[in-house]
Automatic annotation (TrEMBL):
<dbReference type="InterPro" id="IPR005822">
    <property type="entry name" value="Ribosomal_uL13"/>
</dbReference>
<keyword id="KW-0689">Ribosomal protein</keyword>
<dbReference type="InterPro" id="IPR005823">
    <property type="entry name" value="Ribosomal_uL13_bac-type"/>
</dbReference>
<dbReference type="GO" id="GO:0003729">
    <property type="term" value="F:mRNA binding"/>
</dbReference>
<dbReference type="GO" id="GO:0003735">
    <property type="term" value="F:structural constituent of ribosome"/>
</dbReference>
<dbReference type="InterPro" id="IPR036899">
    <property type="entry name" value="Ribosomal_uL13_sf"/>
</dbReference>
<dbReference type="GO" id="GO:0017148">
    <property type="term" value="P:negative regulation of translation"/>
</dbReference>
<dbReference type="GO" id="GO:0005762">
    <property type="term" value="C:mitochondrial large ribosomal subunit"/>
</dbReference>
<dbReference type="GO" id="GO:0006412">
    <property type="term" value="P:translation"/>
</dbReference>
<dbReference type="Pfam" id="PF00572">
    <property type="entry name" value="Ribosomal_L13"/>
</dbReference>
<comment type="similarity">
    <text>Belongs to the universal ribosomal protein uL13 family.</text>
</comment>
<protein>
    <submittedName>
        <fullName>39S ribosomal protein L13, mitochondrial</fullName>
    </submittedName>
</protein>
<keyword id="KW-0687">Ribonucleoprotein</keyword>
Length: 178
């Protein structure tokens, strides 16, 4: 085999590291996108029995956003295998205990229930903030684009740009906002 072919084969089967910022993202809509890179579905050599997936680093999982009132209504089930060991945990309770768990469960449930699912999940690295070890950041070569743009807050905009925003209502000087 020529050196060129060996290089192509190495590049094809090499594991690439991707990074995904979960700030203001819905984990259940982001999960299929993360799954695509974890399992290697975007690669031309993909086969369900071929382990060709990549590593994915998810940062800022503490700042995820669920739609509507899912924080109060989404329930996670756990059973200890003992009699009467069933527990149901609301999303906001689970998120306050472990901020990475909701993203992990969303990605896990989006994958098909095959034998490689648990081994594929070992390549998913979730961090509650953007403090990622340097050893992992050195390997990252791709950033996965967010599904939803993060809106800019008014206090993040400089005063000069705030002054240029057109005002709809000009309040009198003695008016008190309540």
């Amino acid at each position: 085999m020529s050196l060129l072919r060996k290089g192509q084969q190495w590049g094809t089967f090499a594991r690439i590291w991707h990074i995904f910022d979960a700030t203001w993202q819905d984990p259940y809509r982001s999960a299929p996108l993360i799954k695509k890179y974890l399992m290697g579905l975007y690669k031309p050599i993909y086969h369900p029995m071929n382990d060709c997936g990549d590593h994915v680093i998810v940062i800022n999982s503490k700042q995820i956003a669920l739609r509507g009132d899912e924080w109060q209504k989404r329930v996670y089930f756990h059973h200890t295998t003992y009699c009467g060991g069933a527990t149901w945990t609301l999303a906001w309770e689970l998120h306050s205990k472990d901020p990475t768990m909701i993203v992990k469960k969303a990605v896990y449930s989006s994958m098909d229930g095959n034998l490689q699912r648990r081994y594929t999940m070992q390549r998913l690295h979730i961090f509650p903030d953007d403090n990622v070890p340097k050893e992992m950041l050195e390997n990252v070569s791709n950033q996965i684009r967010q599904l939803r743009r993060v809106p800019v807050r008014l206090y993040d905009i400089p005063q000069e740009q705030q002054a240029q925003i057109p005002r709809l209502i000009k309040y009198p000087a003695d008016y008190e906002l309540k």
